[in-house]
Amino acid sequence: MSCVIQEKLESKHFLCLDVATRWNSTYLMLEGALAYRRAFDLLECSDGGKFRYELHKSDGVPEPSNWDRVASFLPLLKIFYDATLRVSGSLYITSNVYLQELIGISVLIKKKVLSNDVGVSLMANGMKKKHDKYWENVDDNVNLLLYIAVILDPRRKMGYTKWAINQQYDSEIAKYLCDKVMQTLNDMYELYDFENPPNESIPPKTSDFLEEVEDMDCDVDDAELEFEKEVQLL
After folding, report:
1. H or E segment at 23?
2. Given CA atoms 62, 68, 73, 75 in this order, what sign does their dihedral have?
3. Tens digit of pLDDT for each residue in 49-62?
4. Which of 9, 60, 63, 77 has CA 20 to 30 A from 142's CA?
């Protein structure tokens, strides 16, 4: 604490330890450590060598290049932290923002894979492999109702959903998943129609209903533009 006071640091971040299996905890640990970088540098020189001695039992004292590497990793880790907070909120509906957060993560990882920073690129490549390995199993790891929630969101609808799926998967898997989503939507409508028969008016046929959904689609290019604006704000 004395080193923080001497360096006149006013950060409200807390120092915490990492949990190896959670990227969120890694982000919080590195963010807090980076905020107190000058205090750590001062501690190395002001505690009689105890701090340096303890760190040399593992990987040693952080060098300037290590701090720079931490700073370069934070934007990539932050998107996971922010997305987790948004989709796990308990005071508002989150089902319709799930897909946006998922695609936002996917888009950022793809961009970081192409980074000129070799360390960032390697880290993003590792993330992409794990990301793709999990999400490519659309039969077991994809909840179709989360796509339905986006379709029923008047700001997104079918056009955005199809665009997002095609951003996430290659053409073959994307078509398969789009067909599954449409079939699920059709089944839900049929069930609702069966359990809620009309009193007087004649209900539209399923095909008419799906055509209406398609007609309400926003243009895919507009959806992409809107989404890119959202990504830039992350």
Report:
1. helix 23-35
2. positive
3. 666 666 666 666 67
4. 77
